[in-house]
């Protein structure tokens, strides 16, 4: 008798409420990658120039790789067209201007309430520039302070007595808890950012094929790149954020099984495999060793869509390990490292699972031992600020599948209880 008594006090409306609650609890916030930031900015007439700046550099491609919340510091047209901001946009090449814009992307979500709760002493916040490895010490971070009397919010470099700073004007857009867009009254220049060097430095114009041949251990890769024609595309990408190439040694090509010949692949697939070995950003060895987001898109990702043809980069046994999902390789040496191009030798040919599947013919994966590099790390080491670790691979999928099972179970229980209720 106790069971019917309890059930009789649970109405169908209550069941529907539980179902709604279970559905909402399993949902997750929209990823930053799903948001078109330029579209959001362009919908505000005062920010069309700043949206154009983002589109003219490689910053947008960096943002599409991120799934973590951000706060964007956007400069209105009026302030962008007057000094000192106008001097920067007019004088700087796209590569340097891109780094200035990365300095305006905070890797943390701030609501207006969060800003008003900042202590007068300030808080240190990592920016997208810090993740490139091109900012020395903690100069890729910003210090946000609040004046307790006027409630004015100021943003500047953490270096003492820095001349460049900006004041927050207003909140433009907030999509909890993914993105906030704040209006600021000026572009901010990172401390120790050499404007004159950025202005006058000629393009590197590196001949990648010749560099590999001079390396004496990369003749197969040099021949493949030259025959495919993609090397011209790589060299044209030296501007902007730069590039990082992972080039298999001649021995790595020799380790491929006899029935897996890259030379026999169709031209389009061969091109994809070669692009799979390239990141569309410059990463010196020190940055790879301290990389914040281990899942990195490649040039092949840009042709095929977000989430495909990615590399998982981590530090294992004191060396940089690169996991494709079916091959685990290690960085064995530094072939060339001069901003904006880094070339590293790797112990295995990086085979994408999108082409070769989970178990390529005659090629058991994967587990090659990761050994320390033969050469000493690049002198361009940068200290990195710590930031929250990325979610493990498959984490979001597990949450999604658990939520689906929970909703299905809730529906069955609700239906069963409703039947009992009607029978009473």
Notes on the protein architecture:
The protein is of the alpha+beta class. The chain has three domains: 2-28 and 394-423; 32-199, FAS1 domain, CATH 2.30.180.10; 206-356, FAS1 domain (Roll), CATH 2.30.180. Helices cover 37% and strands 18% of the residues. The chain contains 19 helices and 14 strands. The strands form two sheets. It has a seven-stranded mixed beta sheet. A seven-stranded mixed beta sheet has the order 9-8-14-13-12-11-10. Strand 6 and strand 7 form a beta hairpin. Helix 2 runs antiparallel to helix 19 and helix 11 runs antiparallel to helix 12 (219-228). The radius of gyration is 26 Å and the shape is globular. It is found in: Cell membrane. Residues 34-175, 205-350 form the FAS1 domain.
Produce the secondary structure layout.
Layout lengths: L1 H7 L3 H15 L10 H6 L5 H9 L2 H5 L6 E5 L2 H4 L4 H7 L2 H9 L2 E2 L5 H5 L6 E4 L14 E6 L6 E4 L8 E11 L3 E6 L10 H6 L7 H7 L4 H10 L1 H7 L6 E6 L1 H5 L12 H9 L2 E2 L5 H5 L5 E3 L1 H6 L5 E7 L2 E5 L4 E11 L2 E6 L6 H4 L38 H29 L1
Parallel strand pairs: 1-7, 8-14
Antiparallel strand pairs: 1-2, 3-4, 4-5, 5-6, 6-7, 8-9, 10-11, 11-12, 12-13, 13-14
